[in-house]
Amino acid sequence: MDAATWGVAAPAIGSAFLASLVEVVEAFTIVLAVGTLRGWRPAALGTLSALAVLGLAVVLLGPLLGRVPIQLLQLGIGVLLLLFGMGWLRKATLRAAGVIALHNEDAIFTSESAQLSKTADQRRASLDWIAGLTAFKAVLLEGLEVAFIVIAVGAGRGLLWPAALGALAACLAVLTVGVAVHKPLAKVPENTLKFGVGVMLSAFGIFWTGEGLGIDWPGHDIALIAFAALFLVVAHATAATLRRVHPRPVTAR
Amino acid sequence: MSILVDVAKELLGMFLADARLATATLLLVAIVAALLAGHVEPLLGGAVLLLGCLALLVEATVREARHRSIS
User: Fold this and answer.
1) Range with top average pLDDT, A98-102, A126-130, B27-31
2) Chain-centre distance for alpha carbon A142
3) Are A174 and A23 in contact (CB under 8 A)?
4) What is the Cα–Cα distance from A15 to A19, expressed in whole angstroms?
5) A125-152 pLDDT per residue, tens
6) Cα–Cα dist A91/A175, whole Å
7) Which pLDDT value is given to residue A6?
8) Candidate from B21, B42, B61 with C-beta closest to A216
């Protein structure tokens, strides 16, 4: 890969890695709750089934991307990235400003465990099935977001494989650390990651939407870095202003 | 069936967490497309897209913060 390709490949791989890290941590927390409460069989079955469904969806839908004209693909993915990235960035900015509560994996673990225990009292017979389904849903829903991010940051420049490798590296990192510590990964600075990923996805969104509309950005791929810097500065400034104007401490959940 | 509904909700929620922000973003892209079709300098269209998105982001964030401080 030459330097110019790296200019866009590195942010694509980095964004896929960081975004996947956030999503995999969320899925891992729920699978861990299922595994701890109901044993690892339903947790593993639910997880593997969801991964199989995701894999099937990617294998079936992936080749269709190759048939879409590149400019139309860039525009479509760019607009979706703008909607997704700015949504993430808005939420991360509100969390950074203390307007909404930070995501708390310990609290989610406790709440999922309590939900499963409650269900256990009501429907003891089908409990393994329900536990497996809980893991299945968590992995499928978070996995869908990972699949979208990989396609979104990779498809516009034929970087699907590097982006997929970034996502896979995130899965392996979370699994390795998760198996070692065997408890929710509460120490992951999730909002900082979401802030960074929101910035990168929004920058990619501007870049692809512009290219799809026929705009030839100055500096080509390097323009991505300038867009990311602008989003970062504006989001930080907004969070800082909101902290001053609305100094309302919120409890983490 | 409930899983399908949850998946559909998750997919919609991914892109439409704030309906007003999503609508305004789509409108902005449509305006930029119209400007470019009307032979406006492409870089000017790009600047409108970039600055417009930044302004929409700030507006959506401040609006949500105000809404939460009132309620």
Assistant:
1) B27-31
2) 7
3) no
4) 6
5) 566 777 788 888 888 888 888 888 888 8
6) 26
7) 67
8) B42
Interatomic CA distance for residues A209 and B50, integer angstroms:
10
Number of neighbours of residue A231 by Cβ within 10 angstroms: 26
Q: List CB contacts of A196: < 8 A, sequence separation 6 or more.
A: A18
**Alpha carbon of residue A4 to chain centroid:** 26
pLDDT at position A253 = 43
Q: Is the pTM for the entire model greater than 0.80?
A: no
ipTM: 0.88
Chain A residues near residue B56 by CB distance under 8 angstroms: 86
Of B11, B26, B36, Cβ closest to residue A214: B36
Task: Tell me the angle at which helices A127-154 and A40-65 cross, rounded to the nearest 10 degrees.
Answer: 30
For residue range A41-83, list pLDDT tens digits in order: 888 888 889 888 888 887 777 777 777 888 888 899 899 889 9
Distance, in angstroms, between A180 CA and closest chain B CA?
Answer: 30
Between A171 and A112, where is the model more confident? A171
Residue at B29: amino acid letter: V
**Euclidean distance between CA atoms A204 and A228, whole angstroms:** 8
Q: Does B14 touch chain A (CB under 8 A)?
A: yes
